[in-house]
Design goal:
This protein has 29 helices and four strands. It has a four-stranded mixed beta sheet, covered by helices on one side. The protein is mainly alpha-helical. Helix 6 (121-130) runs antiparallel to helix 8, helix 10 runs parallel beside helix 12 and helix 24 (482-500) crosses helix 26. The termini are far apart.
């Protein structure tokens, strides 16, 4: 390929030929050699006067070489935030230092950078972005670190002291502003506390990570603002990654893209503030979903699960539906990670063990001195906090709603369903209606459960905490163990007896059970059972129930749970007398009441 010839308009013949990339320049030795030490040395090595000086490893573009050459000729050049890094690297390559000539290009560019470019907010960001094209040169020359320090200092300063705009606008516009950057702010809208977050979101992850570390090290920005900035950055750079959920099944998937997003995600996780609530629970769970899909390191997922556990009461059921991409699990949603989150929620206020170390081979980011202690600070934050009573009530409702969503999964093990249901303390469930619905869905979705498994599933159900509507449904639910149906009928009949108002003395065993039920008086005052509602009061129904109880009596009395307690002993705790005898008394009492009414 024939190189393009370019020359300087001059009456003096050219005595220096310089080739840069695909262009050949006809220049003059005197102006260039007086300012460029590298060209001096290259010319000394040439044996012929007209021999071409080739700059094979020139790091920048031909435009940057031309600007350096024009400066040597005394021609005015235009430098801005967009090209100052490349021109500075070109001048460094040509060795245009003060040792060669006073007031040389490197010195002038450095002064212009510090006094003009970096005094403006957006120009500082543009300059930092342009260092990506010359990473090694920018690092060696200290341009990258200088830009990061300038940006961090502006974030830490008062917004009114910041010159927001120079030649760069994030929307792509340009402003004609003088070097001192004294643009008036009177037309600008009042700045919010996170005015800087969207502009920083334009940075690549490496530069963003270093800039955020510098901002956090300043100690003046609220943790919530850091969390908001990370959320904005994640929404900007982490698109819809659900297409990577079936990565293992798709042989043609872009593994490079997955690796890039995984690196970005784990970098964001490493920047999360230690303070509780700095990042919203919804945002943390979105990161956890992305971590599952992108197969982030186990330490990153554990860190997110721990953070979510600290503020689980703010989550929604949809937030907890995290896709499962594990080869070893056939479930749609990752139940194990939710179990871990619940464990972390209940661990609040306890002293955790020493912070887990990242396993060898896991992702490791360069960390500042303060960032290296983030795990210790975070666990100290968890130790100092504890789940309040109200938060446990909210989480109980959340868990029951979550159980209803996952109960229909055919591959969901019974043990995991029970673990999640029992992870919440008993007092946190003011009623068991939602838990009953979840159990009913699980029974319908798993028709192969045997009697013992159905009893294990229903053992955590407290019939005293079921509403009348749910009791009516449960009394006719053929999937429930018969003993549960009997319990439901007992409390339903007890409520009906109380609401009648004609019974002066109730049997002592009924009084004892009603005394433990705080809400029974409210329920009885508002509920009136009609003959049509009492579908189990017919003698035929009672006879059928008695026959079924007789068939199952041996199994009920001999079944022993995991704690070594037989169902017979448990039944005696729930019912002061045997179920059939109790039910017969209750039936006879109702029948006598009916006869009195007639």
């Amino acid at each position: 390929m024939i190189p393009k010839l370019r020359s300087v308009s001059s009456e003096i013949l050219s005595d220096l030929i310089v080739q840069v990339k695909g262009s050949r320049y006809l220049l003059h030795k005197f102006p260039l050699l007086s300012k460029c030490l590298r060209l001096q040395r290259l010319c000394v090595e040439k044996t012929s006067q007209h021999e071409i000086v080739e700059l094979q490893d020139f790091p920048c573009g031909i435009e940057d070489f031309e600007l350096c050459a024009k400066f040597c000729y005394g021609i005015t050049i235009t430098v801005s935030a967009h090209n100052i890094v490349s021109v500075r690297c070109a001048a460094e390559y040509l060795q245009m230092t003060e040792d060669v000539e006073k007031g040389n290009l490197i010195c002038k560019l450095q002064v212009f950078l510090n006094s003009c470019v970096l005094s403006g907010w957006r120009d500082s960001i543009v300059t930092l972005q342009s260092t990506k094209a010359f990473p090694l040169w920018s690092e060696d020359l200290g341009i990258t670190s200088t830009c990061i320090e300038a940006i961090a200092s502006k974030v830490l300063a008062h917004p009114l002291k910041i010159n927001l705009s120079h030649s760069y606008s994030r929307r792509g516009g340009r402003d004609d502003i003088s070097c001192n950057g004294s643009q008036s702010l009177r037309h600008n809208k009042p700045l919010s506390k996170d005015w800087w977050a969207e502009d920083l979101a334009e940075l690549s992850i490496d530069l963003y990570w270093r800039t955020m570390i510098a901002i956090k090290s300043g100690g003046k920005v609220e943790a919530s603002l850091i969390g908001d900035a990370l959320r904005i950055y994640a929404s900007r750079w982490l698109p819809n990654i659900s297409k990577y959920a079936n990565l293992e099944k798709n042989k043609h998937s872009d593994s490079d893209s997955v690796g890039k997003y995984r690196l970005l995600l784990e970098s964001i996780i490493s920047l999360l503030p230690t303070e509780r609530g700095a990042a919203s629970c919804s945002f943390l769970l979105k990161l956890l979903k992305a971590a599952n899909i992108l197969k982030a390191s186990s330490s990153s997922k554990m860190e997110l699960a721990t953070r979510v556990g600290l503020q689980l009461e703010d989550a929604t059921v949809g937030d907890l539906l995290i896709p499962c991409v594990s080869k070893t699990s056939d479930t749609i949603y990752d139940v194990d990670i939710v179990m871990t989150i619940l464990e972390q929620f209940m661990l609040q206020g306890q002293s955790p063990p020493t912070s887990p170390r990242r396993m060898k081979g896991d992702f490791v980011r360069r960390r500042s001195r303060s960032a290296e202690n983030i795990d210790l600070e975070f666990h100290e934050s968890r130790r100092s906090s504890s789940a309040s009573h109200s938060s446990k009530l909210k989480v109980a409702k959340l868990v029951d709603g979550y159980l209803q969503e996952i109960a229909c999964e055919e591959k969901l093990p019974l043990s995991k369903f029970i673990f999640i249901a029992e992870a919440i303390p008993e007092f946190a469930r003011l009623d068991h209606d939602d838990l009953y619905r979840a159990i009913d869905i699980y029974l319908k979705g798993h028709p192969g459960l045997d009697k013992n498994e159905r009893k294990r599933l229903c053992r955590m159900l407290d019939c005293k905490k079921l509403s009348m509507e749910v009791c009516m449904h449960a009394a006719q639910n053929e999937l429930l163990p018969l003993r549960v149906v009997v319990q439901v009928l007992f409390f339903e009949q007890a409520r009906a007896t109380m609401s009648g108002g004609h019974i002066t003395e109730l049997p002592s065993h009924i009084k004892a059970l009603l005394a433990n039920h705080d809400d029974i008086s409210k329920t009885s005052a508002s509920f009136k059972m009609t003959p049509a509602d009492d579908q189990w009061s017919a003698s035929g129904k009672l006879s059928t129930l008695k026959m079924k109880l007789a068939e199952n009596e041996d199994l009920d009395e001999n079944y022993v749970d995991g704690n070594g307690t037989s169902s017979r002993i448990k039944a005696s705790c729930i019912f002061p007398s045997r179920p059939k005898r109790m039910f017969s008394k209750l039936w006879s009492s109702n029948r006598s009441v009916a006869s009195e009414k007639n």
